[in-house]
Design goal:
The protein is of the alpha/beta class. The protein is built from nine helices and 14 strands.
Amino acid sequence: MNILECKNITKRFGEFTALDNVSIEVPKGSIFGLLGPNGAGKTTLIRIINQITLPTEGIVIYDGSPMTVDTVRKIGYLPEERGLYKKMKVGEQAMYLARLKGMKSDEAAKALKEWFVKFGIRSWWDKKVEELSKGMAQTIQFIITVIHNPGLLILDEPFSGFDPVNVQRIRNEILRLRDEGTTVILSTHNMESVEELCDNIALINKSKLIITGQTDEIRQQLGSNQVELLYTSAQAGSLPTGSSYEIVLDEQQKASRRAVLNVNDGFSAKDIITEVNEKVDIASFKKLIPRMNDIFIKLVSEQK
């Protein structure tokens, strides 16, 4: 089941096309990575999902029905460009924004107190936003974004401005929300976070959808035909050449040697294990899977 479907979304601003026939499906209860370089069209798509702007062509489906302004209340949206009223007190502002999301006053007060206690920030309640650091203001805005328990949470660069401790805290909260049934769309340039958090991804570049699917499957699909071998040998020296592989790298480690091998055409990783096992003692053997950062750079660079 998909909580969100964007079908054939095109958005034009005069003669400029910001999105060109983009379609994505976001499964319920998943973390979905929306990726792309600056200016690719990600923010335009997010604004269309939130009904801030309308598509020139295409339709957005939320939980089986066309997206409407009323449906947007079921979404929590944390934009990259944050916006809090600097002269207002934190607690007063948090209550005001929670009420805008449809929460009753007593319900909002109870939920905010729980979040402030969880994050250890009860002393911030009567501070003005202008007294807070960037990271402190980011924390408040994250809480306000999730306070109404949205079915869909859209986070645009949510780790910006946080120190490593608070980055981990926000990551843990995102995973907890996912595990409790919230679907998360995560737009970020941090590919390490994508690998750690995202079940599925879509990559947009120059207004077009380049690839979409399960993160692990994409990494496997776009991987090079290489394997890594850790081995020991009674004989001195490096790994002997073989018919099933080409040696790319062979170096001494502390207790063993490490080799990176290309799998020759017509052979499989299993053939390499069989051949190498007759020559050395294998400590470990694995297929090399590319990092999301490498995939991002490769796909964006290849698009003309």
